[in-house]
Amino acid sequence: MANIKSQKKRVLTNAKREERNKAVKSELKTRTKKALSSAGSENADADLRTAVKRLDMAAAKGVIHKNEAARRKSRLMKKLNASK
Question: Which residues are CB-contacts of 12 (< 8 A; sequence separation ≥ 6)?
Fold first, then answer.
């Protein structure tokens, strides 16, 4: 453990941020899987919109890079269009 007061605070802040980022990344994986699995069903568009929205929100918060979000959206759309 650090001896400097600001470093102790930084350790706590990083732990909070890590926890939040982990939750967001986990949700991204879940939404992507759900969008891919519901490719042929009637709620496929809603699942796709939710997945894209979550990717955009994660990029806006800085959890993932904006280019990574764009790449993931592109790959997701590519897979869904191929399955049609």
Answer: none
Domain count, the chain: 1
Angle between helices 5-37 and 66-83 (to 10 degrees): 10
Residue 14 belongs to domain with CATH number = 1.20.58.110
pTM (predicted TM-score): 0.85
Residues for the chain: how many in total?
Answer: 84
Q: Note down the domain range covering 34.
A: 5-83
For residue 23, which of 61, 79, 72 has the smallest C-alpha distance?
Answer: 61
**Residue holding tokens 């980022």?**
21
Q: Which residue has the tokens 């997945």?
A: 51
Would you state the structure tokens that stand for residue 82, as one six-digit string? 């191929």
pLDDT at 42: 85
